[in-house]
Amino acid sequence: MKALASLALLAAGATAQIIESSSFGQSYPISPSEDSIPGWSVGGEGHDPVVLSNKVILTPPIPGNTRGYAWSNTPVSQSEWTAEFEFRASGPERGGGILQLWYTKDGHSPIGTSSIYTVGQFDGFALVIDAHGGRGGSIRGFLNDGTTDYKSHRNVDSLAFGHCDYSYRNLGRPSIINLKYTNSVFEVSVDDMICFSTTKIALPVGNSFGLTAATPEHADSFEIFKFVLNSASGKTTPLRSNPVTDAGIAAQFVDLSGRLQLTNKATSNILQDLRMQASNAESRHSELLSRAATKDQVAALDARLQRIEQLLQAVQRDLEGKDYSNRFNQLHETLRSSHLSLSENLQGHLLSVITASTPRMGFFLFMVIAFQVVLAVSYVIYKRRRANMPKKFL
Fold this sequence. Notes:
By secondary structure, the protein is α+β, with helices and mostly antiparallel strands. The chain contains six helices and 14 strands.
């Protein structure tokens, strides 16, 4: 019986054939290059996806608001196939994002980096992994024949034909999703458990597989470890090795190596930013020094201030040593006496003139008034000059 079972497993395995042109991650390293995968187009918005020895990082943990994609360049020519897809999502407590596995007509061209909520009229199938519904995570299937514009649809969530809840974030291990499509069934399972299946859909030959991820400001890092496409419908689920075996330990070391590579790259970017900030600060410091006054200029300004201070002190001492108040009083008394004497003499003289020559009275009246005006103007001018002269404050 054991021999018959072994033969059955071998026969099933013999019918399973990996489609290399639409697969990656079935062997290590994934790619000889750090920015591409043979047979796939890799790119993003807001960052460039990182290709490590054992995984592809579609979206990094920082910064947020990024998108990444990996699209197969070869359409699928098999009518029946199975696909194994391993991914991991990790991020902060309130992080989020969305991951899609596409099987669509024309591949990358109509979709690019779009998510199920921003894509237009695609033709094919999309498997969506996100935190829909606030239940910790879900896996949903969507179909379109190219007539429905998902981007403008008022309720995209209602278009899902199958789903299951799955908490995929921060598990510390990859999650394994298997897709099986035959003429009789389409089935999606996660971690060896059926998620949903249906017998009512038919997928055409000639579509291409692709992966897209998008994150908000508080981002999740979506890592793709492998996507392996097989042509046979009778592929058996591979047995998992015990985590304490040598194979499990080796896989953990490979994963640790990948994490270290990502950490080193992030550290290098941070150091580059710090060096740039230091260079800018040094340039600014030099500019400020060039604009600052020199030592000689400061010394010259200080000497000028000292000379002004000495001059002010000399003027103050000169004012303190002289008393101008007595002189002003004497001048005022002299002017007042002169004014009184002049007024008395002028009045007597005018009276004699008036009595002596009566016909010329108008002329003398004019002279009196003019003289009084001159005296008044002289007195006002004297008062103003006295008010403007320096005063001694006791």
